[in-house]
Amino acid sequence: MVGLTLVALPVFLLGWLIVYPILSAVLETVFPAGENGARALSLASYRFFFSDPYSLANLQVTLWTTLVCGVLLILVGLPIALYLRFSQGRFAAYVQAMAIFPMFVPSIILSYALIRTIGPNGTVDLILNALGLPKLPTPYLTPWGPVIGLVWDNLPLTVLMLTAGLGQISNASVEAARDVGAGPFRVFLAVILPRMANSLLVTASFAVLGIFSAFTLPYVLGPAAPEMMGPFMDRTFSDNNDPLNALTQAVISFGFCLVFGLFYVRSIARNQEGRP
Amino acid sequence: MARLTIKGVSKSFGTGFAVNDVSLDVEDGELVCLLGPSGSGKSTLLRMIGGFERPSAGEILIDAKDVTRLPPERRPTGMVFQSHALWTHWNVFDNIAFGLRLRRRPRAEIRERVEQALAMVGLADYGQRMTTQLSGGQQQRVALARSLVLEPKILLLDEPFASLDQHLRERLREEVKDIQSRLGITTLFVTHGQDEALALADRIVVMRDGVMEQVAPPDVIYRAPRTEFVASFIGSMNFIRVTVEEGIGRHEDLTLPVPVADGPAVLGIRPEALSLTPSERPRAGRVHRSIDFGTHKLVDIDLLDGTRMKAMMPPETQVPRGLRVELGVSAFHVFRDGAQVYQAGARGSETERRVSHA
Description:
The structure holds two protein chains of two kinds. By secondary structure, chain A is mainly alpha-helical.
């Protein structure tokens, strides 16, 4: 009874703020209100989304950004996490502090900081100019702008989760592998990687969920067209005053996130089963 | 089969030394136990031999080849860890086969050698089991097989039975001793259990605060400890403070011939070297309790100055609580400033008991 009381409030909030809006959005898009206010089954808004080249381009750029960010986050975060896991001393503490720092920077501040850094006439341009080097094409207002921002923004969580996953691998099991003749790379491939597959999956799921539904960074740093789903939904709702299509975009976005979420849930369930 | 030479090896962490100027020769096929309390540097020394710690000074040679700067994967050593350190994502066979696969041995040879190793540790049919399905003792056997299958020149065991219960520990250490004798493999065994060291070792290295206190065969360590620390760490030892005057060590309950310079000294007496006789003397020691171990009785005696002595008696001895007793001593050690300065009473030669009356 005490347990149920403890979970009652979170379950209520989950139902009220998450489950109800989802069901409501699905129902409103599948049974849209007609001109006379009557509701009838219609998949017209979905048909429009999947036949509209602009909507599809937005979905495509969102998936591309998510995939590229996910890969980059693992590629950047894993070496940092490995270093933090197997290193000691003051320098490792500094690296950890630097890796976690972006967590404390609001997205909007980060966005404008990146504009001043990698944008036109930003710090990078100024340095290149001072060195007598030619200008580089700026990633600002290209799909790479949000990618850089989102990787920077999601790196702390990725590093923290990967470090936690690596924490489950004992020093002794790594040393035992070296003892039987495995070099560092082989230890990573044969001992570390298989045993952190789960945490990689969970990390990737978390990162992907956050990136797919990102708003501020793609809005400020990304191109006007095609745009990621977050800004696209906002513009459809506010600028175009088209709540039905905005809701449809939201349901489709939720559908994709649900697939990534299922990876996470499956991984958690497998962890629970594996416990003695 | 190999000879291990450690020359002046030290390891410092910050300002302190975990291991300080240790030199040791381990002969071909010898089993040497590194024994000492926590923090004595025994595991650090073993890890330096295995290549997991880099010495701050000194050299480590295996068969006269300097391996001091080689990483673990390039040393001809095999280590068994206290925590088993098995790879839980593989089954028993794959755990043992990993080292052979790294050496690119043919598949048939790998199968044959893994099966031989499993048979050697008594787990012939366990190859396909996951390591998480094994008991602690079985896991430690797999860890041992994983090291042995590679036929290392030096086998290093870092408190391998510490997490096992007493019965299993005793059984496994006998098995390890048998396997080690059969293969004739040079072995270093770290333990903080004196019974383990006494049962297994050809020689024991007693360590304290990063230095070697004594290196000797188990019987010598037990019967001729060079320092007060070794005497107290190996087996049970009664210590009693005496004052030496003109070659006689005096205590209210004991007077013994101690041919050393005058001054305070500490007598070390093993429980089996003490005998008890009933006494009418009012200031004589009093029996506090008697514990029957089946093979013998251990009797605690409280002396008037607060010293508690332990005496090992035959199991049939009746010593009721509160009984006043006089102490007899058949052998003893004399320590001054922590070092032994005199030893008396070889086995069987009873030192005359003299009781001092106030």
